[in-house]
Amino acid sequence: MTSLVQRSSGLVQRRTDRERPPGEEDEEPRRGDEPDDEDTGDSKETRLTLMEEVLLLGLKDREGYTSFWNDCISSGLRGCMLIELAVRGRLQLEACGMRRKGLLARKVICKSDAPTGDVLLDEALKHIKDTQPPETVQSWIELLSGETWNPLKLHYQLRNVRERLAKNLVEKGVLTTEKQNFLLFDMTTHPLTNNPVKQRLIKRVQEAVLDRWVNDAQRMDKRLLALIFLAHSSDVLENAFAPLLDEQYDLAMKRVRRLLELEPEGESVKANANELLWAVVAAFTK
Fold it and tell me: Is the pTM of this model over 0.70?
């Protein structure tokens, strides 16, 4: 028989009754007794971008690299860049016009070219600002990923994105750098060193679809909503739900499916909606 055990990290872990130390039930903190990890122990050094959060969810803690079989994370990270720039007020979609163009037919417009302080974001922003005529969200995801057959557009590709994001996380004290030998070659890896940062990230994702579920995408924090969509598109969302009890896992996935079934066109016209965010969602769910 499995039981729910709440650790200081806030994660729900599977544990059988025979594994429970005597007296643990009495020592288990009641809900609400623990301080909010979001408000304690966090600092500017550990505030992560959407790209860094998605990569962190995909990284194996000890090995320090993402799954070799994950071919979705590359485009997912480029989607993160577009949403991050939109949330920061740098990008927007062109007006829909009299003919009411769909989200995927509208071009991405540079709203502000003010530096973000992040090299990858600034590099992507410069490409988008300097490109005439403008491109659509779908095109930018492909161009920034290097998935184009046009040799004249290969210069748009952002190279070594995962490695550069990992180095950002090293500078923020979340990861470290090591060399590992894989028989035929050596590879630079980035194992996790600051476990509380990742645990807080996982806790946020879990709570968004469990304890703090609001049943309305428009009432959710835009960055957290985007994180759930992009983590799913990057095939790393499962990592955040793996520690849950079976019942909670099923409920979390049911609510994620509910979000994925939303119609981006309809959501984008609601009050306070970020059109570019929903355009990226449409690009990955079409």
Answer: yes
